[in-house]
């Protein structure tokens, strides 16, 4: 097997998102020696399932995957490749293989910032993200985000609209059209010279666990992470946690209203030491000691006139938003807005308007298959439309 085949063979044996993979490779000094140890039975760190996959995984399967990626226009970037992001190599459990569409080379000579936020942000947060990200891109910075609707999309669009460089880190395979609202945006990122990356095989479907694990890549690929808005239950807090553990700088847009729950997570991050960002100069000054040329960016921005909020060239996709909380909607006799949801999603929302329901109750009431309802419920969770409660029920946010 050649070098790429060795890395892919290890990936198929250990599976993506396995935090032990990089440790095993490090123990044996190289991917090739680790693979030999696995095949020879000398690696005692494998589970029974992994040992079975050692026996079953053949070179022809690996080569078939390589051929399929070539057909799909997907490049396979391993930790041995020069193109593999240097910053990502230094985190505790880096992805051993990246599946890539687009170009990663521009990362080498740019200050890189990750930008994260909710799928249904306030107008204040949208404007703040738009202004800050536009300035970052104008100054030559690379923007990394997770391709979700909401703040992620705002950040990516700023880069595309200004002819800048951006990377979308997907929580599913590159060939999975999720979220469907951002299909145009993904194409625009590639056409503008950016990149889409995933550590998952090309057709791996959506899973909540995958999105949580990909957050370490979003933070690990950048010099710092900017949290635009976060509630106390926001997934952005996981990215913030990864950022701190990885020794990167954590930034946060100050809350617009300290009494709104949607900003509780932001307030907590600032209390814990995140740098408040009122302008891009706050970011540059924090990073000036560690990154060459950043101090000059700060001085340039201080001297420049304050710009107006830019108008996006790509039409923004309206975030899916449901009247919340459900109890208040019921008290006011307000129907949740389901006009932007699929029929299946709308049916779930209307059912949960009446009262919280378990997964089994949702299946009974919709008379659909278990897998279908699980998929719809997961999508609504990821869009922050519904909430999974501690008692196992689901309710509207």
Polypeptide structure, described:
- The chain has 18 helices and 11 strands.
- By secondary structure, it is an alpha/beta fold.
- The chain has 3 domains: 3-102, no CATH class; 105-303, Rossmann fold (3-Layer(aba) Sandwich); 326-396, Arc Repressor Mutant, subunit A, CATH 1.10.10.
- The strands form 2 sheets. It has a 9-stranded mixed sheet, with helices on both faces. A two-stranded antiparallel ribbon has the order 10-11.
- Helix 11 (236-245) links the parallel strand 7 and strand 8 (249-252).
- The longest helix is centred in the N-terminal third of the chain and has 16 residues, at 123-138.
- The chain starts with a helix and ends with a strand.
Write the layout of secondary structure elements.
Blueprint: H1 3-14, H2 21-28, H3 31-40, H4 48-56, H5 59-72, E1 75-78, H6 86-89, E2 97-102, E3 112-116, H7 123-138, E4 142-145, H8 151-161, E5 166-169, H9 183-191, E6 195-198, H10 208-220, E7 224-227, H11 236-245, E8 249-252, H12 264-271, E9 275-276, H13 280-287, H14 294-303, H15 326-331, H16 343-354, H17 359-366, H18 370-382, E10 386-388, E11 394-396
Parallel strand pairs: 3-4, 3-7, 4-5, 5-6, 7-8, 8-9
Antiparallel strand pairs: 1-2, 2-6, 10-11
């Amino acid at each position: 097997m050649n070098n790429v085949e060795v890395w892919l063979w290890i990936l198929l044996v250990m599976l993506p998102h396995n935090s032990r993979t990089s440790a095993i490779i490090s123990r044996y000094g190289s991917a090739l020696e680790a693979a030999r140890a696995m095949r020879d039975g000398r690696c005692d760190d494998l589970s029974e399932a992994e040992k079975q996959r050692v026996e079953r995984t053949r070179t022809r399967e690996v080569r078939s995957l390589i051929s399929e990626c070539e057909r799909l226009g997907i490049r396979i970037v391993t930790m041995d490749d020069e193109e593999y992001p240097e910053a990502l190599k230094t985190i505790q459990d880096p992805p051993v293989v990246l599946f890539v569409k687009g170009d990663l080379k521009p990362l080498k000579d740019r200050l890189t910032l990750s930008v994260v936020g909710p799928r249904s942000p306030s107008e204040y947060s949208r404007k703040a993200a738009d202004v800050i990200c536009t300035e970052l891109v104008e100054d030559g910075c690379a923007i990394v985000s997770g391709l979700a609707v909401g703040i992620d999309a705002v950040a990516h669009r700023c880069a595309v609209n200004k002819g800048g460089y951006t990377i979308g880190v997907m929580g599913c395979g590159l060939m999975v059209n999720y979220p469907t609202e951002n299909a145009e945006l993904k194409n625009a990122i590639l056409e503008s010279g950016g990149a889409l990356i995933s550590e998952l095989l090309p057709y791996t479907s959506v899973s909540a666990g995958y999105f949580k694990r990909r957050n370490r890549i979003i933070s690990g690929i950048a010099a710092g992470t900017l949290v635009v808005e976060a509630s106390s239950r926001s997934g952005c807090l996981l990215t913030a946690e990864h950022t701190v553990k990885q020794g990167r700088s954590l930034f946060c847009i100050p809350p617009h209203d300290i009494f709104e729950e949607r900003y509780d997570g932001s307030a907590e991050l600032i209390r814990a030491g995140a740098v408040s960002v009122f302008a891009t100069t706050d970011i540059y000054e924090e990073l000036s000691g560690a990154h060459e040329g950043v101090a000059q960016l700060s001085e340039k921005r201080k001297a420049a006139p304050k710009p107006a909020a830019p108008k996006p060239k790509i039409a923004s996709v309206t975030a899916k938003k449901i009247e919340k909380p459900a109890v208040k909607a019921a008290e006011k006799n307000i129907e949740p807005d389901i006009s932007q949801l699929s029929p299946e999603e709308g049916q779930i929302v209307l059912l949960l308007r009446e009262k919280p329901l378990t997964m089994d109750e949702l299946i009974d009431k919709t008379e659909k298959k278990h897998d279908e309802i699980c998929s719809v419920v997961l999508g609504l969770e990821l869009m922050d439309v519904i909430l999974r409660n501690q008692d196992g029920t689901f309710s509207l946010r």
